[in-house]
Amino acid sequence: MNKPILIYPSLLAADFGHLADACRACADSGADGLHLDIMDGNFVPNISMGPEAVRMAARVAPDLYRHVHLMVLHPQDLLSAFIDAGSQTILIQIESRCDHRELLEAIRAAGCKAGLVVNPETPADAVIPLLDRCDEILVMTVHPGFGGQAFMPEVLPKITSLNVQMGERPLSVDGGISRDTIAVCATAGANAFIAGTALFREPDLAAGVAELRALAARGEGA
Ligand code: DX5
Ligand code: ZN
Fold it and tell me: Which residues are catalytic?
């Protein structure tokens, strides 16, 4: 049986002058949640938003699931702030400098879902020993740090090899996901899709979400 298709718009691609409106639009769009990209300027050469963005999303769109991606060097230093702000899934990078097992356990102990993110250059094997502490694996299909980058098809075999380990847990892809790339990711085994540019450039966010969902379903069936 195929896992449910999940579509998460990435807030990084929204108009920073109207983030609350973007959250409300996502809540009304049929999306399965909101992806919030947190960048510290160390792990990636960019700084994006902090816990207050999560708190804002929880306030303006309380029913919109908050899917938080920590692209930070030391997630252990920030974890409590993001838990307190209302994160519901917290994803840490396997390349970050922390005790991943301890942190995944702490995320779960706080009542959040825990996940690991793997960058394009990192092999799937890096996350296998920690799968028992993960509710989700997110496979980066671009180098993290910026929206609007080109999809990296060389990552597809990694999606396929990880999918066989996931059981019913979501396997997500993030970076360059659009109408042109989503189906091939679904065919490879992904069932959760983060899209920033491809969705926020659409005048009708709901139509964009519906189109990606339909294309992913077609890819699943391929
Ligand atoms: C990149 C972020 C992605 C990015 C996706 O570091 O993790 O979530 O915002 O944006 P697009 O869909 O524009 O590649
Ligand atoms: Zn992300």
Answer: 37, 174
